[in-house]
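Final report, Chapter 2: Outcomes

The project's central promise was a pipeline that accepts a single protein chain and returns its three-dimensional structure in a standardized token representation, suitable for archiving and comparison. That pipeline is now operational. To close this chapter, we reproduce one record exactly as it appears in the project archive, with the input sequence first and the structure output second.
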Amino acid sequence: MSNSRLFPRMTLSGMKLSSFMDTSMSRLPPPSAIFYTGSFFARIGKREQALPELEASLALDPDSVDAHATLGEVLSQRKRKDKAHAEFQKAIAWHIPKIRNSKS
């Protein structure tokens, strides 16, 4: 049985980001649920489906290190190296102050 039959259009964002952001916040799933959906798609090789989920997750939680790193992985696999590098930099930047403070 193919993955598409097991997981028929299993997406939480499911709409364009602009209309997603216009939706009432009380009706939105938590950013972590959207991230885990995007991460799931990335892990099973469905990068096209992972991208909108990860972008929607970051729109709701721009400080998510995991979402930046996973989006960087997906972009890198899709040969979008510049954008992947930018996402990896955002994920790493979050850790730099912690590293500096732990050495003090």
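Archive annotation: The longest helix spans residues 81-102.
This record, like all others produced under the grant, will remain available to the consortium after the project formally closes.
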